């Protein structure tokens, strides 16, 4: 191992540099091929392991960090965030407590910068692994708030102490259901409320009526700042105003739509986000940091501590140390790639990524709208194009473009119609890439 350490920098940096240099030309998707697992072989050293990976596994890895991977709202990794990620592994800090390093202080600074970007001056935040975990943490704090409102402690007595928990949402994301399942509230706690005609946004009057029907029972409302298919936004201010008449915790899923706050032309879409009790934002989407990075914000840090507090003297102060604020006790320093990319490019640099991707989505939408054989299923509001072929099965087209390696898009169903989603969120994507995606669709 000591010999490997001596030549690690040159060996790994050279190999990684080659991958980066060819990323734009890497197939956006690689159709899966059967690969049988093998027993653990004899030791080969770093050279041998790297050669084995390069020959056996790396060719099957998709260019998901590249410019024409348009599935799952996946960002790439800015150069600065990639540097931060490498240093995260090299330094290998566990930012659990403040007693042995400054890592928690850096994490706190990075969270503060994010709160500035999203206009959340009254919220505290923590890094978690992704949008699902961010939603789960926000809803866990909401669950504790319900207990406080009803005079019980869920953290001490369990979710059963709450009885029936109404969770109201117009277009809940799948991660909301998953989070509720993990929290013991159950997927069936969700009561979907009507949307506006031809929209995925909540009909606020209908939501008001649904809350009235609860007869004063406290509830959780999950609002959207950017739905998956049409990037539609609930009227957050109007929903928050309902709290003058109803008791509810307002959680906002702003996984990628929250980044509209960076663009002056689109910031109105997230007006009222600061009035939410908890907010989910996924950073490995539009912030373009490597995977395994999201942030959750809340106004009630005290309740968050009550939920996640660890009972051990060596784990520091429950009021200050991060170990008492997230589901994990051991975690990597996810904040470092975010700190690096924000320090390197600032608000203006990341605003440019957001605005460029929005323009690219509109470009693809216009090309499809003008071409025979295609139909937009919804207006292009932000960075997602939702469309369908008029005479063919969308799955055939998706298979064909994935097999070509030219691009990768995902299937969807919108209002009963099978379709295709193209999500723009990568800093590398250019207008030329948009045209190549369109041509790949035309040839499919």
UniProtKB/TrEMBL annotation:
<dbReference type="InterPro" id="IPR010977">
    <property type="entry name" value="Aromatic_deC"/>
</dbReference>
<dbReference type="InterPro" id="IPR015422">
    <property type="entry name" value="PyrdxlP-dep_Trfase_small"/>
</dbReference>
<protein>
    <submittedName>
        <fullName>Pyridoxal phosphate-dependent decarboxylase family protein</fullName>
    </submittedName>
</protein>
<keyword id="KW-0210">Decarboxylase</keyword>
<comment type="similarity">
    <text>Belongs to the group II decarboxylase family.</text>
</comment>
<keyword id="KW-0663">Pyridoxal phosphate</keyword>
<dbReference type="Pfam" id="PF00282">
    <property type="entry name" value="Pyridoxal_deC"/>
</dbReference>
<keyword id="KW-0456">Lyase</keyword>
<dbReference type="InterPro" id="IPR002129">
    <property type="entry name" value="PyrdxlP-dep_de-COase"/>
</dbReference>
<dbReference type="InterPro" id="IPR015421">
    <property type="entry name" value="PyrdxlP-dep_Trfase_major"/>
</dbReference>
<dbReference type="InterPro" id="IPR015424">
    <property type="entry name" value="PyrdxlP-dep_Trfase"/>
</dbReference>
């Amino acid at each position: 191992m000591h010999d490997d350490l001596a030549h690690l920098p040159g060996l790994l940096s050279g190999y990684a540099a080659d991958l980066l240099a060819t990323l734009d030309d890497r197939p956006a998707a690689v159709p899966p091929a059967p690969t049988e697992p093998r027993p653990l072989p004899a030791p080969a050293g770093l050279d041998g392991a790297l050669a084995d990976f390069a020959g056996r596994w790396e060719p099957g890895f998709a260019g998901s960090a590249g410019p024409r991977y348009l599935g799952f709202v996946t960002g790439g990794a800015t150069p600065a965030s990639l540097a931060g990620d490498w240093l995260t592994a090299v330094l290998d800090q566990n930012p659990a407590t403040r007693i042995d390093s400054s890592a928690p202080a850096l994490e706190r600074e990075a969270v503060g910068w994010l709160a500035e970007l999203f206009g959340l001056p009254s919220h505290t935040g923590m890094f978690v692994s992704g949008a699902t975990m961010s939603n789960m943490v926000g809803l866990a704090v909401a669950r504790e708030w319900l207990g406080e409102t009803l005079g019980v402690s869920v953290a001490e007595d369990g979710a059963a102490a709450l009885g029936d928990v109404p969770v109201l949402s117009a277009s809940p994301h799948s991660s909301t259901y998953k989070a509720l399942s993990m929290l013991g509230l159950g997927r069936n706690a969700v009561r979907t409320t009507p949307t506006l005609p031809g929209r995925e946004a909540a009909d606020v009057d209908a939501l008001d009526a649904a809350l009235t029907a609860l007869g004063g029972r406290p509830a959780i409302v999950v609002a959207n700042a950017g739905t998956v298919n049409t990037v539609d936004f609930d009227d957050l201010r109007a929903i928050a105003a309902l709290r003058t008449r109803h008791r509810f915790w307002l959680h906002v899923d702003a996984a990628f739509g929250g980044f509209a706050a960076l663009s002056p032309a689109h910031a109105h879409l997230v007006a009222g986000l600061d009035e939410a009790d908890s907010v989910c934002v996924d950073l490995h989407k539009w912030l373009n940091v490597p995977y395994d990075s999201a942030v959750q914000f809340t106004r009630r840090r005290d309740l968050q501590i009550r939920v996640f507090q660890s009972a051990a003297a060596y784990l520091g102060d429950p009021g200050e140390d991060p170990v008492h604020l997230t589901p994990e006790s051991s975690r990597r320093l996810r904040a470092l790639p975010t700190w690096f990319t924000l320090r390197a490019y600032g608000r203006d640099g990341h605003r440019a990524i957001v605005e460029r991707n929005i323009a690219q989505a509109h470009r693809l939408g216009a090309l499809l709208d003008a071409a025979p054989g295609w139909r937009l299923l919804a207006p292009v509001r932000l960075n997602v194009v939702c469309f369908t072929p008029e005479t063919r099965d969308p799955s055939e087209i998706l298979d064909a473009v994935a097999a070509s390696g030219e691009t990768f898009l995902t299937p969807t169903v919108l209002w009963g119609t099978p379709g295709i989603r193209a999500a723009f969120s990568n800093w590398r994507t250019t207008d030329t890439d948009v045209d190549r995606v369109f041509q790949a669709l035309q040839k499919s």
